[in-house]
Amino acid sequence: MRITVDSASITELRHLILISCGDLVLFMRVKPVNQASKMKVWLCLSKSSVDTIISHIMRALPQAEFGKITPLLPT
């Protein structure tokens, strides 16, 4: 799952994910974009966790932009 937030919100997003959804997320990648005014965050999680995580993030950070959710390819 890809999420984009303002740089000022990245600490809040990371805290929210680790505290509220930490056991649902396998890993998290963060990358600055647009001269670091925004941050792109990729979360690796199970399909059954998507709705839970989206609802937590939407309540805490309504300005978050949710991108495409893509399944991992089997190895």
User: Which percent range describes the beta-strand content?
Assistant: 25-35%
Strands, count? 4
Q: Helix and strand succession? A: EHEEHE
Widest beta sheet: strand line-up: 2-3-1-4
Derived from helix and strand composition plus strand pairing, the structural class reads: alpha+beta
**Distance between the ends:** 19 Å
Radius of gyration: 12 Å
Features:
75 residues; alpha+beta; four-stranded antiparallel β-sheet; 2 helices; 32% strand
Overview of the structural elements:
This protein is of the alpha+beta class. Helix content is 29%, strand content 32%. The chain is built from 2 helices and 4 strands, in the order E-H-E-E-H-E. It has helices at 10-20, 50-60, and strands at 2-6, 25-33, 38-45, 65-66. It has a 4-stranded antiparallel β-sheet with strand order 2-3-1-4, with helices on one face. Strand 2 and strand 3 form a beta hairpin.
In short:
By secondary structure, the chain is an alpha+beta fold. Helices cover 29% and strands 32% of the residues. Strands 2-3-1-4 form a four-stranded antiparallel sheet, covered by helices on one side.
